[in-house]
Structure formats: C-alpha cells, structure tokens
Amino acid sequence: MPMTEQATGAHHPQPRARNGGSPAATVEHVTGAQSLVRSLEEVGADTVFGIPGGAILPAYDPMMDSTRVRHVLVRHEQGAGHAATGYAQATGRVGVCMATSGPGATNLVTPIADAHMDSVPLVAITGQVASSAIGTDAFQEADICGITMPVTKHNFLVTKAEDIPHTIAEAFHIASTGRPGPVLVDIAKDALQARTTFSWPPTQDLPGYRPVTKPHAKQIREAAKLIVQARRPVLYVGGGVIKAGATAELKVLAELTGAPVTTTLMALGAFPDSHPLHVGMPGMHGAVTAVTALQKSDLIVAVGARFDDRVTGKLDSFAPYAKIVHADIDPAEIGKNRAADVPIVGDAREVLADLVQAVQAEHTDGHVGDYEAWWKDLNRWRDTYPLGYDLPEDGSLSPQQVIQRIGQLAPEGTIFAAGVGQHQMWASHFIQYERPATWLNSGGAGTMGYAVPAAMGAKAGMPDRTVWAIDGDGCFQMTNQELTTCALNNIPIKVAIINNGALGMVRQWQTLFYNQRYSNTVLHSGADTEGAPAKGTRVPDFVKLSEAMGCYAIRCEDPADLDKVIEEANSINDRPVVIDFIVHEDAMVWPMVAAGTSNDEVMAARGVRPDFGDNEDD
User: Fold this and answer.
1) Residues 6+ apart with CB under 8 A from 88
2) 505 an active-site residue?
3) Is 77 a catalytic residue?
C-alpha cells in the first residue's frame, strides 16, 4: 500500500525509533510476543486498553511481566478504542488499543473510523489467525486490514516475528506525525509465538512518507497582505491547531491583527472562550455571531480546519464575499470543499508563527488592517443574539442549566468528554473552554457511546485532573459497561447523564420536520402495549445500574438540589460517580441551521430569524 499523507497538524509525538540501527544495541533472544511488548515499552507506550482472545493471547503473557506498560482490561473492544482516543486527545500522545482476531478486531472498526475522522493518533494492535490459515475462513478470521483500509492512515499485516519491532516503530511514527491518525498493526499468531531476536532502535523504511511541515514563504506573504487589506476578516480555527500545539501562536496572531476568531467543535479551547476576540463556534448549531461572521466576511483564514459540511451549510452559498486562505498539513484538504485563493501546506504551528512575522512586517511598512466597522457589526450581533435558554415553566430541570453549572463548579483544568447529540451541543455552548485538550468529543463521525470510554482514557492518561463525561441517556446505554472497568482499575471519572427519556436530537428533528411524530425515539418505556412498563417506571434505572457496576450514583430532579449534587460528585474521588439528571424532554438546541440550507437561514431560536439589516451586505 503506498504511503500518503493526510493532515491536520503535527502534535507532540511519543518517543519513537530513530532511522537506522544502532551497532551498540543489545540483542535479546525472545518470542515475537515478547518483542511486541518490548517494542511498546521502547516507543513510550505506558497504557494499553484491550481484551485478550485466542489469536492475541501470546502477547498477553509477556505483558503480565512488563513494569512499563499498564494494560486496562475493558468490557468491550469499542470501549478500548474510544478509551485510547480519549487518552490521546487528553495527553497528546499516541493512544493504544489491543484486540484479538475476528469479532475482537471488527469491534474496533467504529473507534478507528472515529479517530480517522478526527485525526487522532492511535495504534490499534490486533491478533490474526496463523499465517498458514489466512484466507481459509479459519475460526475467528477477518481481513481487518482490508476492512479498515479506508479508515486508517496506514495498516500493516505482520507474518514474521522479526518484523515486529520496526513495524511498531513505524506505526507510532506514522500515527503521531504529519496529520495524526489511526494505524492498525495486525499480527499473525504464529509470528507472536515464533522465536526471534530483539534489538532497538530498528531501521525504519518509509520511502513515500514525507509530511511537509514548513510552509512556503511566498504563500505566507500573500496571506499576510490579504489580512491587512481585508475589512471583514475571520480566523477560522480547526482542531489541527490543538494537535499542532499551536494555541500560543494563534493567540499572538489574533491579538496582533485584531481579527475575530471562531473555533470549530473540534477546536474548542484552542482560543479562550472568554477572550474578547472570540466570537464563538460556527456551524449548524454554532453561535449566531460566528455563523454570520463567516457569511459576511471578505477574508477567511482557515487553519487546521476542513470546511466541513456542518460548518458551511449549503456549500455553494457559504461565505459568498470571502477570499480564502487555507492552511493545513494535509494537502488533500486544501480545495477539497472550497477553492483556496492562497493555499498553504504546512504544520499549523509553523504556519501561524510565520504569519505573525509576515503581518508584523506589513505593520512595519505601514499596512495595518482597519476592522473598526467590522467589530461594530460583530458586537451588535453578539449583544443581540447571545447564547441562552429558557427555564422550563413546570419547574423541572433545564438540561442547559445542568451542564452550565457542572462547568462553573468544576475544578480548574477539568477535562470534559461528551457523547453525541443535544447534550454535546449544550456542552459546547454552556461550558467555557479556556485551554486546549479540555474538550473531547466525536466530531466527524458523531459516535454515540463515545463519552464514557473516552473519559476513562483521559483519566487514565491524566490521573491528576478531574474528568467529567457529559452523556445522554441514549449514548450512555451503548457503552456504560466501561464504568465497571473504571471501578476496578481506580479510574474515578464523573458522569452526568442528561436524561430526557429520548434520543434527544432525533426527537428535536421529529418535532421540527416530522410533525411531532416521535417514531422510535422514546427510551424510558416500551411501546404502548399490554405488558409495557408502568408510567413513570425507569428502564433501566441508571442509579441502580451504576451502583451495580461499583459507582456512587445519585438522581437529581429538583433544580434546588443541582449545586449540592454537583459539589458532592466533585468531592468523591475514590470511585466513579454517576448523576442521573432528569431533565425537561422538550428542550431544544439553538441556534440552528437546518441540514441542507444556507447559513444565511440561521435561526437564533424557534421562530426567531436574526435581522441583520441591509447595510452589512455591501
């Protein structure tokens, strides 16, 4: 398979092998399995999430003797993959998961695809049937390399024990450099059992893999000229800025230019929410000011972002007045959805640092952008259409208020992981993110069940930080079994179940677009037939379920108890804590741009179309 680069910013890679062997390296006589564990130790992997099974079993025996690699036994391989992703997103290091052949490997496909969409550095190690049985439909055989080829940055099938060290070194190098992403290493059982020698560092051979990190100086100068000439510029910041460790450079550039900053769902925390230059998150459920700023802009400087459909809305009507500067480490992203007037291939940190110098040179030459009229418009929109919510008239809990208070009462540096749906959007709106790697979510794939295992991985990687999983009752029922893993492995995460008794986001669409026909979105009771649970019965009872898995669990239904319950959860650090927040079922996520429509049609609230006047359309 030819190596190609896909990219959103080089992050902080783990220690990895150097090119070329070392004549002074100590040679050890080992099995392939021992070689695998020694290789993981040498590349700096300290945590592996996985489940043993027949084909991978030889690797588990030497892992028992390792003092440098901790294995966390999960309850489902999907949990292992999401935990490795949460670990990677929180720490900036490569996440590692492990599974056996066949169904064990195929259960990793969803988290691998999730990591691929969100450019997360991940190495998935799978066992494979013996090399002589490959292709015979042997017991628990699956072509996991073929299955995952579209959703991995690269993958390897290893059939010889001597190939294990250099393959692991290459896998970690590929996963963590250029545009980060998942790499799969599938190892035949007989390769794990065979005798071999181990020496480190191995020789790496990746002739086609040469990520470009240094941007072209001419393109940087062109971008700087456009910035100072523009009247309505916007810095459109994507998750690549966090992966590149470029948040300090971003802040310098923003303050130097005075241009507004909008951070995507994957970039929350890349620029402080509280900063006066920050105009919010763009997209389908983005802030009115952020959505409108992009629509009315005359220059968009996109860094580490990919013009995703959730940001652009109807693509042919997106930002009709704007020239585009698009900087990304993956050349395939540039021009993929929107043509770039100034394409810049490079690492986001280097791009931003060079842009700062180029803009300073423009200022020295007397060319300074004048954005006073632009900020007058932006501030008017920001004051007129702020994010907000109404409290339920029946006195029940508001889901937005629950999430907002969790954020306000959380210790400094708390990491928040969200599932997918309404609670994800409310968590992006009503928690303030002031620093990078404090917001973890499934952005590109939108994977329900992400939150609990991702929070587990984040806590395993950052044990001194508080980690909250903000989950919905639908998402929670997909992967809650990993609370058992947390309880047994001293990983004391905190989980807020935003329990509205329904698949909330789908129900919102049914309310708005399907005449309130709620087909198969009610979760808390069965169909209205004989033998269905009595009205008010909770199936499952999340408090009892969580207690059965070794957690401290509380139910909160009264707004008067909200702060007390959250503070109690924050004070318990010897086991996982789960709070079942019973919230109003009719709460909706606003603002909203309906799927397939133009961002010009953004709704600030139900039935409320913002009025921008006509003077901004010049």
Assistant:
1) 94, 95, 115, 120, 121, 122, 180, 457, 461
2) yes
3) yes
Tell whether the model's pLDDT for residue 529 goes beyond 70: no
What is the C-alpha to C-alpha distance for residues 53 and 126, in angstroms, rounded to an integer?
10
Cα–Cα distance measured from residue 297 to residue 227, given in angstroms and rounded to the nearest whole number: 12
The one catalytic residue in 14, 170, 189, 307 is: 189
Q: Which of 5, 77, 170, 362 is catalytic?
A: 77
- Enter the DSSP assignment of 552: E
Active-site option among 139, 149, 544, 557: 139
Question: What's the pLDDT tens digit per position in 251-307?
Answer: 999 999 999 999 999 999 999 999 999 999 999 999 999 999 999 999 999 999 999
Q: What's the confidence (pLDDT) of residue 535?
A: 55
End-to-end alpha-carbon separation of the chain, Å? 51
Q: Which of 140, 193, 360, 477 is catalytic?
A: 140
- pLDDT above 70 (res 25): no
3-state secondary structure of 361: helix
Tell me the residue ranges of DSSP E strands in 144-247.
Answer: 154-158, 182-188, 195-198, 233-237
Instruction: Note the pTM of the prediction, 2 decimals.
Output: 0.93
DSSP 8-state assignment for residue 432: -
Concerning whether 557 is annotated as a catalytic residue, the answer is no
Sheet (strand 182-188) strand order: 70-73, 47-50, 95-99, 122-128, 182-188, 154-158
Is the torsion defined by CA of 91, 94, 100, 106 positive or negative? positive
79 phi, psi to nearest 5 deg: -60, -40
Can you read off the two tokens belonging to residue 435? Answer: 């620093």
DSSP annotation of 522 reads B
